[in-house]
Amino acid sequence: MSTLPHCPQCNSEYTYADGAMYVCPECGHEWLQDAAAETGSDEHLIKDANGNILQDGDTVTVIKDLKVKGSSLVVKVGTKVKNIRLVDGDHDIDCKIDGIGAMSLKSEFVKKV
């Protein structure tokens, strides 16, 4: 019986160790072995493109032009987004952008101000 933890994203039991990381072959998620040991809770940290930890209410800047799905609008590089709200899911930031309105962003396309 394997003593490796289940995948935190898809709960797969088929994880394996690769150096200092655990890897899930089903969803491709990778996480540090130390992170699983030291955080006994299911707390999920959301980080920006530079690795800074984001929190509710932070101000971030967009680092890439982002097309708004279903529209011809574009969120330009350098757009400041104030008072973000973190949520679970693929797009883990909910926010309001001036001139566009409410939308969701991926944390990998923003940096903390």
Automatic annotation (TrEMBL):
A Pfam match: YjdM
Highest taxon above the source species: Bacteria
Residue ranges constituting the Protein YjdM C-terminal domain according to the UniProt record: 46-113
Domain Protein YjdM N-terminal span(s) in chain numbering: 3-31
Signal peptide extent: none
NCBIfam families referenced in this protein's UniProt entry, alphabetically: phnA (TIGR00686)
Membership in a protein family: Belongs to the YjdM family.
Protein name as annotated: Protein YjdM
Organism this protein belongs to: Thiothrix nivea (strain ATCC 35100 / DSM 5205 / JP2)
